[in-house]
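Ticket #132: bound-state structure for zinc ion.
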Amino acid sequence: MSAETNEKQIEPETAARINCPFCDEDISARAKKCRHCGETLDVSMRKAEEAVRSSERAAAYRPQAGSKNKVAAFALAWILGGFGGHKFYLDRIGQGILYLVFCWTFIPAIIAFIEGIIYITMDDERFAEKYG
Ligand SMILES: [Zn+2]
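RESOLUTION: The complex was predicted; output attached.
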């Protein structure tokens, strides 16, 4: 029986251990990410991650592209549709002018009437996607 065979080799892994500042579990001092809670420990990596996170948050809180109100578009289509009122409201200026030019034919009014129905029955998300 020799004691030498039982002698433990000191692994570099166990040589430097720290406690995770986030979950207090024992982890390697060289770990970039805690394997218990998944938090990033490396300072520069952490900063980069936080920058990404905050930019994502900023994007999420940005006022929605859908600033146009479909009820307003519907009302305009029915009241001023013959003159392209809803088209001007929805930034379709070219089409609005076309409606205006042909208003005397009453065709734009008929199309606008139908468009008004389309707007009001359209799903909010789809409306924002198309006209927002
Ligand atoms: Zn942790």
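RESOLUTION NOTES: The chain has two domains: 13-61, 70-131.
TICKET STATUS: resolved
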